[in-house]
Each structure stands twice: as structure tokens, then as C-alpha cells.
Design a protein that fits this description.
The complex is a heterodimer of chains A (about 450) and B (about 325). With about 450 residues, chain A is of the alpha/beta class. Chain A folds into three domains: about 55 residues, Electron transport complex subunit B, putative Fe-S cluster (3-methyladenine DNA Glycosylase II, Chain A, domain 3); about 250 residues, TIM Barrel; about 120 residues, Rossmann fold (3-Layer(aba) Sandwich), CATH 3.40.50. In chain A, about 40% of the residues lie in helices and about 15% in strands. Chain A has 16 helices and 17 strands. In chain A, strands 10-9-8-7-6-3-12-11 form an eight-stranded parallel sheet. The model of chain A has no long low-confidence stretch (mean pLDDT about 95). By secondary structure, chain B is of the alpha/beta class. Chain B has one domain: TIM Barrel. In chain B, about 40% of the residues lie in helices and about 15% in strands. Chain B has eleven helices and ten strands. Chain B has an eight-stranded parallel sheet with strand order 8-7-6-5-4-3-10-9. In chain B, strands 1-2 form a two-stranded antiparallel ribbon. In chain B, α4 links the parallel β5 and β6. In chain B, α3 packs across α4 and α4 packs parallel to α5. Chain B is globular. The relative contact order of chain B is 0.15. The model of chain B has no long low-confidence stretch (mean pLDDT about 95). The chains are: A alpha/beta (about 450), B alpha/beta (about 325). Chains A and B meet through β4, α8, α9, α10 and α11 of A and α7, α9, α10 and α11 of B.
């Protein structure tokens, strides 16, 4: 947590030597608190003061990287309890668990997880890793399964799930350079696990039982003292109520108390339920503070919904994703192609353009500047009214390009058609469907150029 | 190490208690549903009281909804042709209450009369013992006409009449006032608009324990984050003592979720979307769960599997310390 100017001042030499460029140590401290200068500008600061200032400027939840290379992901470094207070920064990694006992299944799962991708509002959403769970077949079998996953899915981050230091050691000899997350150090094995994590510079999860945060803090402090910096917390809760309580308390301790031993990202396990049971657990984990979420299998229908929720929750509330307002060509429209208008909220744009593409009918899609709001919201806020629509059409210069002078309004603003017709002399205003999913049918069976 | 001190917020406010349905004084329900009363954020049992669990309302429509997703129609079977049978089925599946949409009174959906609507509501009241939320067709004039007739004909039942919006609340509020019903106040995803409408409605004399608020629902992938954050802000304001944000919140999860392509279209979509029937149910459950954690008190859902899962989640989340 950031220190105030006065707290910083107490750590400075207080000699007012001016060598930092400020008239007094207090002025320098004030500027430092606002991050307007650097501590290095003070030539006389003691090592002790430097250490405490460095510690104080560290984020309350450590940023931890899992994996190496292009597909590595970072979690932690969150600063708020509620996304509206600022934003959530590092979306939780979604990881699929597979048991180590059947190499064929490990290989298949690793391939599917690695290649899975889904498009949404112009972004390609992917899974973040695979968790290999030791099924008790011994160190060699576990290491072999990890090797199979690595070769089937090169570069895909790994979680090594075992409490047996021999198995983890063998797996790390195989994959240690990839910075896998080791899960987990417990009260029983933490010394050996910490040693392995330190040796291979890997992040290490510490696990307590049944949400015992005091034990979790002890464990985290012990592995940190043993030289492990990148820690992930597992409070050992497997039910929705326990998970919510533990995760909320961890987030509050880190952000409100700046409690260092628990200032790390959290790992959640959704358990082995039906798709909808896993969906409910994972949705809780996404909204309520998980940094890594382990799913129990590769189920695209579930994964797609969770990735979408994750993208939604981790969108900066101050910056909705917007499209550039302009004329878009979907397909290769000609002078007789339909003209549709919509707003510049990215989701609206991608939903509408996706349906147009699917219809196979080339279309001029005019995107109005509505401050990144959807059609209904923009209309309610006065950002998508008859005047705005008329201006957008006029500015597009389409009047001279098209054989027809017909504009299709979104069905939700059907009520504007009369006004738009008045504003746009010589244009015929048509009302399209309310929902984008009905656009193909509209284009194919309702719309006529003449 | 010594025991950790868990940070606990000292909230000064609480969500208002609202009871739907009545068993006497004109009410014919066999049970009532009370929501609200929370003195902490959703399911934080270590911090405050959650005297009433959130509840699940099943959506029933007064005409066979032929345009609904095939996955839904298949799961609901033939009962969708009779609202009373449909409502009975959903109560059998565990719904805490029924949300009845009078869609056939919409001018474009058959334009059935207010008298027809009254008959439908009475048939559903006769078929089930749980409380009802009754939605008009969503067209201002017809909403007024239909909901007033329903309110008059069901005096004392403590129905929740939906929806009151800023341009259209006076008639419906008056009908609720005169007949001992509740109302649902709906505003478009905005904290201040929600407060303002609550103020306008309570200024008409409707007591605050007869008002639910609907912050307007967005489904996963279709604006759920806006609903989520507005609900969190409303709930935080309620707990901080702002009296005009303390109404229990109701969310139209089913309607929004099943409207989306992900839930409607089985073929010709990317393979990465996964198996259709699972995806559609998961979409509804995921939307419901996110909003549950933002403070929803009543979730209106459609699919039998969603009802079962949301009920399971609520039961698990209510298992306090």
C-alpha cells in the first residue's frame, strides 16, 4: 500500500540539503508520494529506509507469471474489490485438469486444450493451460505424463498437481524450464516443495485445509522464507460458500490490511460436477477473485461461456470496447446492396456484422458514433436519435453511391423512422429486425432493392 | 502465528424485506415468499445476516412460445400450451414462484383482451399455491389496461405487477395500491435512475415493502458486466444506508439468456462453441450465478436444468459458517 508523504518524510535524512532538486525533504517526500520523482534522487537515503520504501511500494497482491514464452500468463496485482471502483486487471487463467494415469488421454487433452480458440468481439479467446494430476503411479509415471503433455502442446503452461516431492522433482526435471505452477506445498511437505520450486524458479501453490487462512498464511510465510517469491494460494475450500468466504477474506486482507503473507493470487478448483455445476462454481470464481481456475475436463460448451463471462468481467468499466464509427463493407456490396445502420458498441457491431456475413448477402453497414453504447442504451441516452442517424447517413456520402435510397433501422428504434424520414429528404426508411439473429432472414426474404 | 483478524465491514443499512403472495385477506396462496433482509454482501455469512435465501422464479408464458429456442421447448414439452399446466410443472420442478408473462395480450401477438388475461391469471392462481409475478405484454397502453384488470380481479393476492418504468408507472402503482399488490420497478442499468423511480413510486404512497427493483438484465456476452456492476453499486449503497436503493432485486435471466444466438442456434456456428444443449443451459446458469453474486434476490429462469442448478447453488451458498 502506498505511503503518505509524511510517512515517507520520516524515513528521509531530514537535512534539507536540496541535492534532490527540492527545497526541503518534506517537499521531496510529497512529490515521491505522488510518484512525481524517484527515491534515487536522494543521495543520502539509508539502505534501511530504501528497503522499507521498496516494500511499501510493492503491489498488495503480487503479480505471478505462470508458464514461459508466448502463452505464459500473469495473475494478481489487483487493486480493487469491486470492478466499478477501477477495473480488474489480470483475468484468471482457465486451466483444464487431466489425470496422469492414461498417457493417451493426457496427449489428447493437451492437444485439444492447446488448440482451442473462440472468436468474440474481434478477440481470439484461448485456454491458458493444462493441469496434470498425479494419480499415484509413482514419480516416473508422473514425469512421463508431463513429458507427453509438453510434446503434445509445446509452450502451453502447466500446473503440476502432486503432493509427492519425488514426483514433482521428476516432473520438474522434465519441465522445470517452462515455469509450471507446482500444486501444492502443504504443512506436511513444504520444505521439499519449496526447495524444488526455488531450484527451478517456479511458482508454488500453498494449500491449507477447509479455508484455514491462518494456516495458509503460516505456510506462505514459510515457503517465502525458504526463498520462493512467486506464490499462489489455495485455501482448500471445495464448496461455494466456503470458497466465497475464503476468497473474499483473502482479497480484503491483501487490499485493506496490506497483509503481506497473503498478498498473492488464488487458485480455484471447480470440482467434478455436471457442466452446469462446474459453470456455477467457475462463474463464482471469475467474479469473486480467483487468479487460476482449474476445470475438471475439456467441455467446449462450458469453456466458451466461462471465457465470455471472464472477458465481460475483466473489461474496464470506464472503457467499453468501441468500434471506429464509419462505413463498413460486409462482403462486397454494390450500388444495389442493402444499407443497415447500427451503433459503435463493439458487441453490437460484431453481432450484427457476424449475422450479415452468415447470411451471405453483401451489405453496407453504417456504424454511428454512439459513445460505444448498444442500440437501445444509446437511444435511451439520446446518442442514437433521428438527427444523429441522418447526419451519419449524409456524412457517409452514400446518397451518391447507391441506386436505391433505402436505409434499414434497427428494429429497436422503429419509433424513429418517421423522424428520420423527415430529416433525410429523398430516403425511404425501413425497419429491420430487433435482434441480430433475425437479420439473415430479413436480408434474404424481406429486403428488396426496388 | 496468532489467529488472523479478518476485515469485516460494519454496514449500517439492510435490504428491505418484501413478501410476495398472501395466504389470507383475499390471498389464496398456500405459501408466501419473503426476500431481502440482508445486512451484508451476497452470502458473506461471516459478516452479517442473510435471513432469506434468494429465490428462483420460473417463467411461464400465456401462449405457446413457438419462437423460443428448440432446446427449451423440448425440455418443457407439451405443457407450454396451457399456462396452468406449465406453472404446475415448474413448481413440481422446484420453482419458488411463477413469473407469468401475458404475451398474448400484445397487439402483435394476438391482442387478447384484459378479460382473457384475468382468466389466465386466475387459472394459474388456481393451479399453483406459490406467489405470482405477472408481466404485461410490454406495451405501455396495453400494460396499463391488462395489469389494472388483473390487479382488480385478484385483490389481496400480493402479486408483483411488472413492470413499472419512468414513463409508465402511475396507473400500475395505483392498481397495486388499491388492491394490495406489489410492483416491479424497472430502469435501464443505472443507479440514479433506479433510485429516482423508487422515489417517484413511493411518493405515490406505495410502501417500500411492496416494491422490487429490476436493474435490467444483460446476459453473459451481452452486457452482463453492466448489470453486474450496477447491482453491486446498488447493493453497496443499500448497505451503506441509502433508503432508496434497498429494494430486493429481480433479474430476467431466462429471457435475456435464451434470446442470444448461443442459446438459440444449434447448427452453423463455430465448433468451439461446443455442444448446443449444454451450451444453452450453461449460458443461463452462468448468467444467473454472476448476478446472484452481485445481489440478485429473485432470478427468473426458464430451463428445468437451470432451475435445479440455481437452486443447488443457492442452497450451497446459504450454508453459512
Amino acid at each position: 500500500m502506498a505511503l503518505t508523504g509524511l510517512q515517507i518524510y520520516k524515513l528521509l535524512p531530514q537535512t534539507n540539503c536540496k541535492e534532490c532538486g527540492f527545497p526541503t525533504c518534506l517537499a521531496f517526500a510529497m512529490k515521491l508520494a505522488q510518484k512525481g520523482t524517484e527515491l534515487a534522487n536522494c543521495p543520502y537515503v539509508s539502505d534501511e529506509a530504501k528497503a522499507s520504501l521498496d516494500a511499501a511500494s510493492a503491489p498488495p497482491i503480487r503479480l505471478v507469471a505462470i508458464g514461459a514464452g508466448e502463452r505464459a500468463f500473469e495473475v494478481g496485482n489487483e487493486v480493487v474489490l469491486f470492478r466499478h471502483e477501477k477495473t480488474f486487471y489480470h483475468q484468471p487463467g482457465l486451466v483444464v485438469r487431466v489425470k496422469a494415469d492414461d498417457p493417451k488421454i493426457v496427449e489428447l487433452t493437451a492437444r485439444m486444450v492447446s488448440s482451442y480458440a473462440v472468436e468474440r468481439v474481434g478477440m481470439s479467446l484461448r485456454l491458458d493451460g493444462i493441469a496434470i494430476e498425479d494419480s499415484g503411479g509413482g514419480a516416473a509415471a508422473f514425469a512421463a505424463a508431463v513429458a507427453v503433455a509438453r510434446s503434445a502442446a509445446p509452450g502451453l503452461p502447466l500446473v503440476l498437481m502432486s503432493t509427492d516431492p519425488a514426483a514433482v522433482g521428476a516432473a520438474l526435471d522434465e519441465a522445470g524450464a517452462d515455469r509450471p505452477l507446482v500444486h501444492a506445498a502443504t504443512a506436511a511437505n513444504w520444505q521439499a516443495m519449496a526447495e524444488l520450486a526455488k531450484k527451478h524458479s517456479c511458482p508454488l501453490a500453498v494449500r491449507a485445509e477447509s479455508g484455514d487462512l491462518t494456516a495458509l498464511a503460516d505456510l506462505a510465510a514459510q515457503v517465502q522464507d525458504a526463498g520462493v517469491d512467486d506464490i499462489v494460494l489455495d485455501p482448500g475450500t471445495s464448496d461455494p460458500a466456503g470458497m466465497l468466504a475464503a476468497f473474499t477474506q483473502l482479497r480484503r486482507l491483501a487490499l485493506k490490511k496490506n497483509y503481506r503473507p497473503l498478498g498473492f493470487p488464488i487458485i480455484a478448483f471447480v470440482g467434478a460436477g455436471s457442466a452446469e455445476e462446474q459453470a456455477a462454481m467457475a462463474a463464482e470464481a471469475i467474479t469473486k477473485y480467483a487468479g487460476v481456475i482449474v476445470l475438471d475436463g475439456f467441455e467446449p460448451a462450458l469453456i466458451y461461456a466461462l471465457m465470455t463471462l471472464r472477458q465481460n468481467v475483466y473489461t474496464d468499466p470506464q472503457k467499453p470496447i468501441q468500434m471506429e464509427p464509419k462505413l463498413y463493407e460486409v462482403g462486397a456490396p454494390t450500388a444495389s446492396s442493402p444499407l443497415l445502420i447500427t451503433t459503435n458498441f463493439s458487441l453490437t457491431y460484431f453481432t450484427v456484422s457476424g449475422e450479415i456475413e452468415a447470411s451471405g448477402v453483401p451489405v453496407w453497414l453504417l456504424v454511428a458514433d454512439a459513445d460505444g453504447m448498444s442500440v437501445l442504451t444509446a437511444w435511451a441516452a439520446g446518442k442514437f436519435d433521428a438527427e444523429k442517424i441522418a447526419k451519419t447517413v449524409t456524412a457517409s456520402g452514400l446518397g451518391g453511391k447507391l441506386k436505391h435510397h433505402k436505409l434499414v433501422l434497427p428494429g429497436y428504434v422503429a419509433g424513429l423512422s418517421g423522424e428520420v424520414e423527415e430529416e433525410l429528404a429523398g430516403w425511404e426508411i425501413l425497419v429491420g429486425p430487433r435482434e441480430a439473429v433475425e437479420i439473415p432472414n430479413y436480408l434474404k426474404s424481406v429486403w428488396k432493392a426496388d | 502465528m496468532t489467529e488472523l483478524e479478518i476485515p469485516v465491514e460494519k454496514w449500517s443499512g439492510a435490504v428491505r424485506l418484501v413478501t410476495l403472495g398472501a395466504t389470507g385477506d383475499g390471498g389464496t396462496r398456500t405459501s408466501t415468499v419473503t426476500v431481502g433482509g440482508e445486512t451484508t454482501l451476497p452470502f458473506l455469512h461471516f459478516e452479517g445476516q442473510i435471513p432469506n435465501a434468494p429465490v428462483v422464479a420460473a417463467e411461464v408464458v400465456d401462449m405457446h412460445p413457438a419462437d423460443w429456442s428448440p432446446a427449451l421447448l423440448e425440455a418443457l414439452g407439451d405443457d407450454t400450451r396451457d399456462p396452468a399446466a406449465w406453472a404446475r410443472k415448474m413448481v413440481g420442478l422446484g420453482a419458488d414462484l411463477i413469473s407469468l408473462k401475458l404475451r398474448s395480450t400484445h397487439p402483435d401477438q394476438g391482442d387478447r383482451s384484459a378479460a382473457d388475461a384475468v382468466a389466465t391469471v386466475k387459472s394459474v392462481l388456481a393451479a399453483v399455491g406459490v406467489p405470482l409475478i405477472v408481466y404485461g405484454p410490454g406495451v405501455v397502453d396495453k400494460d396499463n389496461e391488462v395489469l389494472v384488470a388483473v390487479a382488480d380481479a385478484t385483490k389481496g393476492e400480493r402479486l408483483a405487477l411488472a413492470t413499472c418504468e419512468d414513463k409508465n408507472y402511475r396507473t400500475i402503482v395505483a392498481a397495486a395500491l388499491g388492491n394490495g399488490h406489489l410492483i416491479v420497478a424497472q430502469t435501464p442499468i443505472d443507479v440514479n435512475l433506479a433510485k429516482q423511480l423508487n422515489i417517484l413510486i413511493s411518493d405515490m404512497g406505495l410502501s417500500l415493502d411492496r416494491m422490487l427493483m429490476d436493474p435490467t438484465t444483460g446476459a453473459v456476452g451481452y452486457g452482463v458486466e453492466y448489470t453486474y456492476s450496477v447491482m453491486e453499486r446498488l447493493r453497496l449503497a443499500a448497505l451503506m444506508g441509502d433508503g432508496m436503493t434497498q429494494q430486493p432485486m429481480i433479474c430476467s435471466v431466462g429471457e435475456e439468456s435464451w434470446r442470444q444466438k448461443e442459446s438459440r442456434v444449434a447448427d452453423g456456428v463455430p465448433e468451439s462453441w461446443g455442444e448446443y444443449a449444454t451450451r444453452a443451459v450453461v449460458w443461463e446458469v452462468t448468467t444467473a450465478t454472476a448476478l446472484l453474486h452481485a445481489g440478485a434476490d429473485i432470478l427468473v429462469v426458464r430451463h428445468p436444468r437451470s432451475i435445479a442448478q440455481v437452486q443447488r447453488s443457492i442452497a450451497a451458498l446459504m450454508k453459512g459458517v
